[in-house]
Amino acid sequence: MSYRDVIVAVTVLALLPRAFTRPFFGLLLFTWLAYLRPQDFCWGFAKGIRYSLYCAMLMYGGWFFNETRKFTRWSTPTRWMLGLFLSVTLSLVGADRDPNDNQTDKYVDLFKVYVVTFFAVGMVDTGDRLKKFAWTIGLTFAFFGVKYGLHGVLRGGRILQGPGGMMLDNNDLCLGLAMGMPFTFFLRQTAEKRWLRRGLMIAFALTCIAVICTLSRGGFLTMCLVCLLIFNKLKKSILPWLVAALLAGIVPFLLPSDFKERLETLKDPTQEESAAGRLYAWQVGLRMVAAHPFFGVGFEGFLSNFRRYDPITVRRKDGVKSVRVAHNTYLQVWAELGTVALVCFMGMLLSSLLWLRKTRNEVRRRGGPQWLVDYADMIEISLLAFMFGANFLNRAHFDLMYTLVAMTACLRFVARDELARLAPPPEIARPAFGARAAAAPAMVGAG
Asked: Are 178 and 385 in contact (CB under 8 A)?
């Protein structure tokens, strides 16, 4: 037993009762536990305690007994999400299960993600709550950016494994850090304390270093996209573009040699074993789609069905080592869950982007608070980072992606309430039909 186990266990267990009395605090605590996973920093008894489960039970119980808000509020993105979940359920029920797979356990874990996502839409119904929710997520990913960024700077080591959960390996960690970068940047825009703004800017820079240290090519490209999208939002200033141009000229000389070699493979992916393997996995995935176009091969069934649709395995009955995952989220959804699920998945993402655009345009047109525009940009860039990075990873059930969809709906509802409190724009009285308009006053000094 170490002091770290005692500190984590005592801290979390002391906060759990408040999750019952204040369900929204329970949501923040659950989010912190889900993304930070403090138990993974322990080695003793605290590592095996299921803090998130206890927090969820108290949170839902507190909502049932103490809360007057609805469990959720429906929107276009969340309706698409519900359709996706129903498609997952049908795929799990109708597919041929491999007795060696733990598909049921994975489905239960995914079910928990959906329930918490819908619950967040119901609980985050004010601007203050939305800010607290965003800061909880943003500071968590800023922490990981600083932690792994300092590891890269001080030790020069490679990061080949994440903290756990949805960021278990280096590719997952890299995608999560890239999606967290917009939070770090735009929360800095709204921070009032100077020390906090400077700290978030340092965290942003260290996150960039952490992404490079993961040696993930897809993550590096996603990070570059995020930086370009952020700079594009700062249209009134040329300074960010000058900084970007300076970094573009300096960074290539500072990159580790092994990482440069991995980036060189992007010129011809077929000549590199890992990249060529991904291209081959996509071909096998398309064979699954052709065989099961409507409901797919089954939830989490890509890996177990790979040999059945691998042409090399068909010709060679001996064990072949080419079994791979999809390495593409869209193909993963299509092959495992079918065309209906892919339509729901794309509808959820695209409708979220559309809602963010509508929210931003309406706030600007009505002269609403600037922080609403900043939050719309923040969520939009983070969601685009997922949609781009998903081309290289099979992360159809990435927790943070569903949270972004929930935040999109919350932001829309909060913006609607904030704008309703503003005074309506003055309207010019129009003359009645057939009446003559009043004559304009004469100009002073007119002869």
From this structure: yes
**Per-residue pLDDT band at 443 (split at 50, 70, 90):** very low
pLDDT of residue 396: 86
Using the 3D structure, point to which of 232, 265, 298 is the last residue of a domain. 265
Q: pTM for the full model?
A: 0.86
Q: For residue 197, what are its two tokens?
A: 């703004």
- The size of the chain, in residues, is 447
The two tokens of residue 266 are 């992007």
Same domain, 394 and 405: yes
Query: Do 313 and 280 have their domain in common?
Result: yes
Query: Cα–Cα distance between 264 and 388 in angstroms, integer?
Result: 20
Q: In 3-state terms, what secondary structure has residue 167? A: strand
| Domain assignment present for 218 | yes
Same domain, 386 and 414: yes
Residues 6+ apart with CB under 8 A from 370: none
Assess whether pLDDT exceeds 60 at residue 318: no
- Cα dist from 193 to 200, 207, 285, 378, whole Å: 11, 21, 50, 20
Which among 220, 268, 271 has a CA at the least distance from the CA of 388?
A: 220
Which residue's entry shows tokens 């299509």?
334
282 belongs to a structural domain: yes
Contacts by 165-171 with C-beta closer than 8 Å and gap 24+?
165/34, 165/35, 165/37, 165/40, 165/399, 166/395, 166/398, 166/399, 166/400, 170/214, 170/215, 170/216, 171/214, 171/216, 171/218, 171/219, 171/392, 171/393
Q: At what angle do helices 3-21 and 23-36 cross, to 10 degrees?
A: 150
By residue range, what is the domain housing residue 78?
74-123+268-420
One domain for residues 164 and 298 = no
Residue 444 lies in a domain: no
Q: In whole angstroms, what separates CA 319 from the centre of its chain?
A: 38
Instruction: Give the containing element (helix H, strand E) for 84.
Output: helix 76-94
Task: Name the domain count of the chain.
Answer: 3
Same domain, 50 and 150: no
Domain end (from 53, 68, 83): 68
Note the pLDDT of residue 14.
93
Residue 102 covered by a domain = yes
Res 403 pLDDT > 80: yes
How far apart are the C-alpha atoms of 359 and 364, rounded to whole Å?
9
Tokens 């700290």 label which residue? Answer: 199
Query: Are residues 258 and 319 located together in one domain of the fold?
Result: no
Mean pLDDT across 350-370: 94
* Residue in the block written with tokens 């091969």: 297
Tokens (6 digits) for 18: 């408040």
